[in-house]
Amino acid sequence: MKKFTWILTALAWMFSPALAEISTLTDTDAVASSEKAVKAFVGFEANNILLIKDGSLYFSLHGGVALNPSFRLGIYAATVANDVNTCENGKNISVDYNALGILAELKPLSFGKFSISIPLSAGAGFSNIQTQGSENSKAKDGFFVADAALHFNYQITPALEFGIGGGYRFFLGISEDGFDNGDFNTPFGAIFINWGEN
Is residue 26 scored above 60 in pLDDT? Predict the structure, then answer.
């Protein structure tokens, strides 16, 4: 019986480093696996924009999946928060627009809690152009839109990110009531917050 006990003790002592190594590998693999896992995110962004050469606010909600810490894909929905009022050909006109689309964001630089990212988006929508004081004068004009930006991000917590940035938004297909793409194309500044799984 004593021999059996000694044999078990010797075997346990011999294999303990291997078991420890297997345990270490398992823990490392788990961390690597968690880093590679697809994670969901949602966010809110506010822009200051030019519309018909007048300032306005643009809000968007977005969400999607982070395929890895440096790249994410998603969708967005956006609207102009306050109508722009202008005078064209002697008519007082109110203008705003809404859009839906897809987005991709690449994060090439990261240092500590700070990072720099390049978001790109493309979508479609419609403009609302209404002549004030006239009934049934509301026209909807379809368009395509795309933008590119540079964002500076700060990771407040593992799940919460805040940032500022700026970019340029391009339109294609605007032709209602004498307006064209140039009336909607705009540089913009952005402030945003994102929440993601950690």
Answer: no
User: Which tens digits make up the pLDDT trace of 30-57?
Assistant: 444 445 588 999 999 999 998 887 889 9
Model confidence pLDDT, tens digit, residues 91-108 = 677 888 999 999 999 999
> What is the rounded CA–CA span in Å between residue 54 and residue 87?
12
CA dist 129 to 18, 48, 87, 166, Å?
73, 20, 12, 27
Could you tell me the pLDDT band of residue 145, with boundaries at 50, 70 and 90? very high
pTM of the model: 0.76
Encoding tokens for residue 176? Answer: 């209602």
Q: In angstroms, what CA-CA distances link 182 with 24, 47, 48, 53?
A: 60, 18, 17, 10
CA-to-CA distance for 26 and 34, rounded, in angstroms? 12
Instruction: Give Cβ neighbours of residue 75 (< 8 Å, ≥ 6 apart).
Output: 62, 63, 64, 100, 101, 102, 103
For the chain, the structural domain boundaries read 1-36, 38-196
Average pLDDT of the chain, as a whole number: 82
What CATH number was assigned to the domain covering residues 38-196?
2.40.160.20
Distance CA 80, CA 187 (A): 14
Q: How far apart are CA 164 and CA 4, in angstroms?
A: 69
- Helix and strand element counts for the chain (H, E): 2, 9
CA distances from 196 to 62, 65, 67, 102, 138 (A): 12, 9, 12, 18, 39
